[in-house]
Design brief:
This protein has three helices and two strands, in the order βαβαα. By secondary structure, the chain is mainly α. It has one domain. Strands 1-2 form a two-stranded parallel sheet. Helix 1 (16-27) links the parallel strand 1 (7-10) and strand 2.
């Protein structure tokens, strides 16, 4: 499946596994939405890393304005209890 240019929301993407997933998806050409609840500084670090990989993103807690800016909803992938493979 070609995921380049898709908009992907990665919940909990400020730190840990969520940040790693966001960076992986950005490296594959996705526009990653960084979603966080507490760690704004960490979210900004993840955001900068994704931008360096070419992602056009928004960092936000609220999804509606974020999705308008990022380009709309196209697909969903839940990785809870699972994983991403390259």
């Amino acid at each position: 499946m070609d995921i380049r240019g898709g908009v992907v929301i990665v919940t909990g993407s400020a730190t840990g596994v969520g940040a790693a997933c966001a960076k992986l998806l950005a490296s594959k050409g996705c526009n990653v939405v960084i979603n966080y609840t507490k760690s704004e500084a960490d979210a900004r670090e993840t955001q900068a890393a994704c931008e360096a990989l070419g992602s056009r993103r928004c960092s936000s807690r609220r999804m509606s304005p974020t999705m308008r800016t990022a380009g709309g909803w196209r697909r969903q992938r839940s990785t809870a209890g699972g994983g991403l493979t390259g």
